[in-house]
Write a structure and sequence with these properties.
Blueprint: E1 4-5, E2 11-12, H1 19-47, H2 53-78, H3 84-89, E3 91-95, H4 103-119, H5 123-131, H6 138-143, E4 145-149, H7 181-193, H8 199-217, H9 227-247
Antiparallel strand pairs: 1-2, 3-4
Helix pairs in contact: 1-2, 2-4, 7-8, 7-9, 8-9
């Protein structure tokens, strides 16, 4: 599921970088890398002039591997996919699901780059990028990565909406190892674009994605939780775990990351502690009241229902007659006192 197509024929996807921008970024990176390689090689040549030819050859090979292969891998790992050339061109290397890359992704890309960039002068990488639908080279295919554009119009950038406060930390014990990257990408794309979709289409897509997520995790969704809120809460939990692995500590937004005595799913929110970091005592809000919680997004409510043909609509209130009106001397809703 590389691209998610809605019922309105709207494709939700990342903005992959194309060959011209990637070639320019690679050219900048290679110029910097070769300049550093030549400077260090000249310095080592002067320092190792007294060594024999075998030692100088070994130093030259080690220097080639460290500067032209190891340095790009280290830079992409430390900057989470932003090398100097990509930073100048507004590009970034991300995982297939849109998350930041790690060392193993940068290592695979760097190892394959020796063959398709250094040894073939970028010919193999250009051909692979032209053939690929999303502009990926062979290293991206093996590493499960994608080079995307970071500089997009301001009006089109949308962050993943946070879950309702009463769902924060609800899925801290959920096993997310069986969820593939393609499904994470689909959930992320839906959450960032659901405000642009029709209400019925958005609800149907949320139900389908929630069912796929439940099937992958092996745990049922809590009763009464809207599917869009469930997707947002699980996505927030996954982002929290990624940030914890990358940076060590994470400060949970909206309250504590876990509530004692509350199971992962299958229960309603309640008990002595209220979700979302509520400081005062009192019962926690029910899941079906998510749309009425302060700060909760509108999408937490159920979709609008259209009455069926056999369902009788509620009688409307009778309209006041011409003689109806406020009594003389009383103040009306507009703030004026009608004449007696």
């Amino acid at each position: 599921m590389s691209a998610l197509v809605t019922g309105d024929a709207v494709v939700l996807g990342l903005r992959p970088a194309r060959l011209p921008s990637r070639a320019l970024a690679l050219l900048i990176d290679m110029v910097v890398a070769w300049a550093a390689y030549l400077i260090v090689s000249f310095a080592l040549l002067l320092a190792t002039a007294s060594l024999d030819d075998a030692a100088q050859a070994a130093i030259a090979v080690a220097l080639f591997v460290l500067v032209l292969v190891g340095a790009p891998i280290a830079v992409e790992t430390l900057t989470h996919g932003r090398s100097l050339g990509k930073l100048a061109c507004g590009l970034r290397v991300v995982r297939d699901d849109g998350g930041p890359i790690r060392f193993r992704h940068a290592l695979v890309r760097g190892a394959m780059g020796v063959v398709e960039i250094l040894l073939t002068f970028g010919v193999v990488a250009c051909i692979a990028s032209l053939v690929s639908e999303r502009g990926r080279r062979i290293g991206d295919v093996f590493a499960g990565t994608l080079v995307v554009r970071e500089r997009v119009p301001v009006g089109r950038t949308t962050a993943v909406p946070p879950p309702p406060p009463w769902l924060m930390g609800r899925f801290s014990g959920l096993d997310l190892s069986g969820v593939p990257d393609a499904l994470w990408l689909a959930v992320r794309q839906y959450l960032t674009r659901m405000g642009q979709l029709d209400a019925q289409v958005s609800w149907a897509m949320a139900v389908r994605l929630a069912d796929d997520l439940v099937a992958r995790t092996g745990a049922p969704a809590p009763q009464g939780v809207p599917p869009a809120a469930y997707l947002a809460a699980v996505m927030a939990e996954r982002q929290t775990r990624d940030a914890r692995r990358a940076f060590g500590t994470v400060r949970a937004a909206g309250g504590a990351s876990g509530i004692a005595g509350d199971r992962v799913c299958g229960t309603t929110v309640g008990g002595a502690a209220a979700m979302g970091g509520a400081s005062g005592p009192g019962p926690a809000p029910a899941p079906h009241d998510a749309a009425h919680i302060a700060g909760a997004p509108v999408w937490a409510a159920a979709p609008p229902r259209t009455p069926s043909a056999g369902t009788a609509s509620a009688p409307s209130a009778p309209k006041p007659g011409p003689e109806a009106g406020p009594e003389p001397g009383t103040r009306s809703a507009t703030g004026f006192v009608p004449p007696a």
